[in-house]
Write a structure and sequence with these properties.
Elements: E1 26-29, E2 37-43, E3 47-48, E4 53-54, E5 66-67, E6 73-74, E7 77-83, H1 87-91, E8 99-104, E9 110-122, E10 134-141, E11 154-156
Length: 162
């Protein structure tokens, strides 16, 4: 059986504009839009295609062969934030509650998705008076709208801004 070799492909100039700075990137939880934390660091959602499917058979002679899966996972959003202790009370109304989560980037572009606050873990409080107390918040994307339908993240790009 003939083998078709891979042919090199040249990289094209990307469209759009590269972000110059990530400041400020903010996260809105629709179930409580003014919840008592202040973002210091945000890891926006990403995509994960999952583990490769091993399609190696007894007819392979040199290489293990693999194929991509079919489903995509939206990765969690991580937030490190300053916080007010009243957040303990506010969290009770959003933890494990599916709602719309919006990440807003410095240029005004947004990505909105269905998800929930999975956990909020206060970090160690230091004896140093120069260290601000922080909390680590994890938001888990659900990729469904609560009615049983798959729902992809919705990206709204602001064109022409650096």
């Amino acid at each position: 059986m003939p083998v078709t070799p891979a042919t090199p492909t040249a990289r094209a100039t990307p469209g759009g504009l590269a972000q110059i700075s990530g400041f400020p990137t903010q996260v809105t939880i629709a179930a409580d839009t003014d919840i008592e934390f202040w973002e210091k660091a945000v890891t926006p959602p990403g995509y994960d295609g999952g583990e490769p499917i091993d399609i190696t058979t007894m007819f392979n002679t040199v290489y293990r062969t693999k194929s991509p899966g079919n489903l995509i996972e939206v990765t969690p959003i991580s937030i490190t934030a300053a916080w007010d202790p009243i957040l303990y009370t506010s969290l009770l109304s959003v933890i494990n509650v599916s709602t719309v989560i919006t990440v807003t980037f410095p240029d005004g572009s947004t990505v909105a998705l269905y998800g929930y606050v999975q956990k909020a873990e206060p970090q160690e409080v230091s004896k140093e008076d120069s260290d601000q107390p922080e909390i680590a918040i994890t938001i888990q994307p659900t990729s469904w709208d609560g009615l049983g339908f798959e729902a992809a993240p919705v990206v709204a790009e602001v064109s022409g801004t650096p």
